[in-house]
Design goal:
The chain is an alpha+beta fold. Helix content is 39%, strand content 16%. A hairpin with a 6-residue loop joins β2 and β3. InterPro entries: Integrase_cat-core, Retrovirus_Pol_polyprotein, RNaseH-like_sf, RNaseH_sf.
């Protein structure tokens, strides 16, 4: 889950879009919002669950609208587990970020022409869900509903009444078999696409081998005036725990900063701290005096 915006205000004073993407099918759910506060986002999450049912886990960033008590209570009431990505690691929400890029590409012409983007949003969402994914080789609509969507220009098929199931049980069995075939193909195609992506990324990756007790610098995003002249790293900090291969728990030796959540390893670089030693000539000068 993520928030897309802000955009130009629509006729209904909406400036944001709440987006939710299914991790398996890439099915997109989007609803316009006036504000990105916790109450508006909680209402959007509740509407999402009312349309598609309750899921087991929702993944989002650490935005104030997602970590607020209101949002947490909604998920707790519906028995939905919340997971948060590390801060400043946008690739951890790659599905939402890639969807936002597609939304921006398709909404830009309407925004530039001063047209109401909110009126075109349902059509854009439908087009995204109807496109065939390059990784799974299926559209999100077909994975969820077990059939391809009908368009105004779709060819009309002659209905053969011999193929129509006589009862509901036969219809459900045929639909279940069709969905199982589609989802097995999606699993295989997705694994192949993930393997290719990992091989491509590992060619240019520089692994950072950390151990407990190492000193590291933490990258930051400078803001405000003169940000080009600000430091892009803070620290040094000390590694206290490695809960996973990608997450690191830090401690500030000075005690000025408290790390409540682990940080991603891509934001770190080793800090080579040298202990100052007195040079020999300093001792000689002291002896002469």
């Amino acid at each position: 889950m993520d928030i897309f915006g802000p955009l130009v205000s629509s006729n209904n004073a909406n400036t944001y879009v709440f987006t939710a993407v299914d991790a398996f099918s890439n099915f997109l759910f989007a609803v316009p919002l006036r504000n990105n506060d916790a109450i508006s986002v909680s209402q959007a999450i509740f509407n999402f669950f009312c349309n598609f049912g309750v899921c087991s886990t929702v993944i989002s960033d650490q935005g104030s609208e997602f970590i607020a008590k209101c949002t947490m209570e909604v998920c707790k009431m519906l028995n939905v587990e919340q997971e948060f990505t590390p801060s400043m690691m946008h690739h951890c929400l790659g599905r939402c970020e890639r969807t936002h890029r597609t939304l921006a590409e398709r909404l830009t012409p309407y925004v530039l022409d001063n047209k109401q983007w909110e009126e075109m949003l349902p059509g854009i969402v439908f087009s995204i869900n109807s496109c065939v994914n390059s990784g799974s080789k299926y559209s999100a609509f077909e994975i969820v509903y077990g059939k391809r969507p009908n368009f105004p220009l779709s060819p009309s098929y002659i209905v053969d009444f011999k193929d129509i199931p006589k009862d509901v049980k036969t219809y459900v069995e045929n639909l279940d078999a069709r969905l199982n075939i589609i989802r097995e193909h999606v699993k295989l195609n997705t694994l192949v696409a993930q393997r290719k992506m990992v091989e491509t990324e590992n060619k240019n990756a520089h692994e950072l081998d950390l151990t407990v007790g190492d000193n590291v610098y933490l990258s930051r995003e400078p803001v405000g005036q003169g940000r080009k002249f600000q430091h892009i790293y803070d620290g040094p900090f000390t590694v206290t725990c490695l809960p996973s291969a990608h997450l690191v728990i830090l401690r500030d030796p000075t005690g000025k900063r408290n790390f409540r959540r682990p940080v991603h390893i891509n934001r770190l670089k080793l800090a080579h701290i040298r202990v100052p030693l007195p040079a020999p000539y300093f001792n000689l000068q002291t002896d002469e005096k």
